[in-house]
Amino acid sequence: MASSDLDMSIDEERNQLLMREKMMQLGGHLVLKEDEELANTKLMALKKAELMQAMETQNFPPSMHFFQAKSLIEKSEVFKILKKMPKGAALHLHDFGILSMDWLVKNATYRPHCHFCFTPRGALQFKFAHPTPPTPAPAECSEWILLEKYRKGLQNVTEFDNSLLRNFTLVTENPDVAYADQNVIWSKFEAIFFTISGLVHYAPVFRDYVFRSLEEFYEDNVQYVELRAMLFPVYELNGTLHDRAWSVRTYKEVASVFAKKHPGFIGIKIIYSDHRFKNASLIMESVRTALELRAMFPRTVAGFDLVGHEDTGYSLYDYKEALMIPFSRGVKLPYFFHAGETDWQGTSIDRNLLDALLLNSTRIGHGFALTKHPAVWAASWKKDIPIEVCPISNQVLKLVSDLRNHPAAVLMAMGYPMVISSDDPAIFGAKGLSYDFYEAFMGIGGLTADLRTLKQLAMNSIKYSVLGQREKTAAMASWEERWDKFVVDVARGPQ
């Protein structure tokens, strides 16, 4: 064979392989319309320019810690397009980690009758009370201080408010020094929820928090939200406590009011959750509670999940008796398990992926370790169980440092079903979904991920939601209308 024939043969085979890989990747089979092709050409030119510049400067946001990359991301032309993109649904979020913490500092802590104190561990605690101050057990607090009065005695209120903000997020200038390992960062992470609990569980703040959260996601072009919620008691100024049913009803009412004021917003569903450090008998109670709540609110309560640091918590197998209760009763309780949010391959924790599959989890939260389990991977794919990928969360919580090396890169290249979500964006200093979409599109997807990938991810978020079939059809139609407008804006906008 002549060398020119050999060159041609290699070039042909090379092109065929590249084409096969392009077809295999997430969204690779989608055929773009004319305006989508134009928009894609523009988007990919911007993406390539950013990547080429990053290769020269070695300054690439997905390879950097998010706390240090955020300001660079905000300057990105690709990011500006992603912010405008209709993203469909956010399917992996936690109740009080989703609204910018600025709002809690500047709104909630400035409300009348807000008290604060320091616990023996040095953590802050808040409580609204009137006409008398709160009365906790002495061990909980040194003394309650009226925040309004305290601020009046300060010379620098801004500095105090900034210190509150530092207590409400994980953001720090040097995260690798501040958070030596996963245990350290998880300890601070869970302490934040303890710190803000007295603010967010005050009934007037609770209602406003839900409304403003929906607003923040809606402004980021998200139409629908599924929320993991612990449903702790919510209190009134006079100390009256509301139960879980009140909280679910309030979520439902607030979402309904929000939908009337915001065209195209579809709604909210709650995945009742409990903490995986509790013993099995307490989780049995939680599963029964989830069944009761789902029976009371079948259109609002979607199912059940277990949350918390997977590496230090009980495994799903430890809870198997509790988690089998619905099956034994012949009742369906959809599960949405966090699983595979670990680097410890082969441990009992790592096997949560296996048990999530066997327990028919509707989706798998994170699924970070899935590529290490070929049999689980194949069976999950066959069952069409998507993973909820939260890039920034995985990086900040020290599972992966460079998002180009995220296991989802393999899954995305293979076309495995997935959605992108943001977990607890407010605690990471992010907002909505756009930052995570940027990290997924630029870092996890590499240069091969294009508009098809983005379109598939947005459609997946509706496809794999727990909306009923009729609701999904309406949601998809509404999303498509927005998508077509977005595409035209990108395709025909300024060069």
Report on the architecture of this protein.
The chain is of the alpha/beta class. The chain folds into two domains: 83-100 and 200-482, Metal-dependent hydrolases (TIM Barrel, Alpha-Beta Barrel); 103-184, no CATH class. 50% of the residues lie in helices and 12% in strands. The protein is built from 21 helices and 13 strands. It has helices at residues 3-24, 34-57, 66-75, 77-84, 101-106, 147-152, 157-168, 175-178, 182-200, 203-219, 244-261, 280-296, 320-323, 325-329, 352-358, 374-382, 391-396, 408-414, 434-444, 451-463, 469-492; strands spanning 88-94, 114-118, 124-128, 145-146, 222-229, 234-235, 241-242, 267-275, 301-307, 338-339, 364-366, 387-389, 418-420. The protein has a four-stranded parallel β-sheet with strand order 1-5-8-9. A four-stranded parallel β-sheet has the order 10-11-12-13. A three-stranded antiparallel β-sheet has the order 3-2-4. Strand 11, helix 16 and strand 12 (387-389) form a beta-alpha-beta unit. Helix 10 (203-219) packs across helix 11 (244-261). The longest helix is centred in the first third of the chain and has 24 residues, at 34-57. It is globular. The mean pLDDT is 95.
